[in-house]
Write a structure and sequence with these properties.
The chain has helices at about 1-30, 35-60, 65-70, 70-89. It is an all-alpha fold. The chain is elongated. The mean pLDDT is about 95.
Length: about 90
Amino acid sequence: MTEFVICYLVAVNAVTFVIYGIDKLKALRGKWRLSESLLLLSAVLGGSVGAWLGMWLWHHKTLHKKFKYGIPLILMAHAVAFIYFLNRV
């Protein structure tokens, strides 16, 4: 079970990191963008580390309050849940 959770978290964070990069690239090129709902949902579903790294690396969505404050809050909640999960296993 623990291996599955770790594999899931690695995969969802990698996908989230990539979609933040894709959205930034689309923004720079003036193309159709990914929805903010998709970006936030990917973070909520376990990709908070990938979202935070994507925001930091590409300077993407850093001025939007729901991302600037929301992603770190989601990341903290995930950290607490992960620590709790590890202590229960």
